[in-house]
Write a structure and sequence with these properties.
Elements (H helix, E strand, L loop, with lengths): L1 H5 L20 H16 L15 H30 L2 H4 L5 H10 L1 H25 L2 H8 L17 H19 L5 H33 L13 H17 L1 H23 L1 H13 L20
Helix pairs in contact: 2-9, 2-10, 3-5, 5-6, 9-10, 9-11
């Protein structure tokens, strides 16, 4: 990918880039349609906070690493996209199922396209493994805050939230099977999954942006933390989140809202039992309980045994 984003620029044909918006739609509407794809490419950026307990000076290191990582990825994405759009004619690119492999084949021969395909497979497997490990962290964190049943926060002997991972993976698999059985084509199915995943992820981002604005008004900033000089970051983030939700389309928004509504009864029930559940778990943690010592539903992380 790095070679495509750098050396590939030498093969760009400017006339292939002339039709910037061939859809004929207004620029705002056309750009909103690709906003979910842009956001989908960066989903998981919040996972940099997962190892915060094991990072030195995490309040400074993690924000800096996140910004640097996003900036580097954005630069490669933009250059790589420009290369692909400049190498492959628009008519051919519109029907390509593997544009980077096709661009590599056009520039360097069929062996390069095969190499890119193998690299994409390895990258996909790596991303799948990473998401499988991370998908248990959110339910576990919700259990720590008393928003999900306690057993979501239970860990195996090796410290893995196994129950949360199994349930999350099963639900994701069921969703894939239900949508795939509808008979839609691969491209339509892929676009639906991208839009739905983006819709589900952008809503917390929007609330985090609003929370940042509110925290500024109360001057609550962690000691030694990183703080941007103006509210511009939060405002732009919130506006982009709303723009992305608009671009996801009616079907993905409808499915996303239904999923959110399904969580409301569980939220109300868990909040009503919050005080009842926290006390016994806190006592077990204080006495060295292994199941819940690191999964207190109080919002306060358990002490590091080291």
């Amino acid at each position: 990918f790095f070679a495509i984003a750098t050396l590939g620029l030498l093969w760009v044909r400017p006339h292939n880039l002339a039709a910037f918006n061939p859809s004929g739609k207004p620029l705002f509407e056309a750009s909103a349609a690709v906003a979910p794809l842009i956001m989908f490419a960066y989903l998981g950026l919040e996972s940099a906070t997962v190892p915060a307990g094991d990072v030195r000076d995490a309040q400074r290191t993690i924000p800096r690493a996140t910004l640097l990582g996003i900036s580097a990825a954005a630069l490669l994405y933009v250059l790589g996209t420009v290369t692909v759009m400049g190498v492959i004619p628009r008519e051919q690119l519109a029907h390509s199922s593997s544009p980077f492999a096709d661009a590599s084949s056009a520039m360097w021969g069929h062996w390069a396209g095969g190499l890119i395909a193998v690299g994409a497979l390895i990258s996909s497997l790596g991303a799948l493994n990473g998401w499988t490990l991370l998908m248990g962290q959110v339910p576990m964190a919700a259990a720590q805050d008393g928003l999900l049943p306690i057993w979501f926060g239970r860990r195996s002997e090796r410290g893995v939230p196994a129950i949360a991972i199994l349930i999350s993976a099963s639900l994701a698999t069921a969703l894939l099977l239900v949508e795939a059985s509808g008979g839609s084509g691969f491209v339509a199915f892929y676009n639906f999954i991208v839009n739905l995943a983006t819709m589900a992820a952008v809503i917390p981002y929007a609330f985090c942006a609003l929370a940042g604005v509110m925290l500024r008004r109360t001057d609550v900033v962690p000691t030694g933390g990183t703080r941007s000089p103006f509210k511009l970051v939060e405002i732009v983030a919130f506006a982009f989140a709303i723009w992305t939700i608009y671009g996801c389309g009616a079907e993905a928004v409808l499915y996303g809202l239904l999923l959110l509504l399904l969580g409301i009864p569980l939220y109300v029930w868990m909040r009503s039992r919050g005080a009842e559940l926290r006390a016994p778990i806190a006592r077990q943690a204080q006495h060295g309980g292994t199941d819940f010592a690191q999964a207190l539903p109080t919002g306060i992380p358990a002490p590091n045994p080291r």
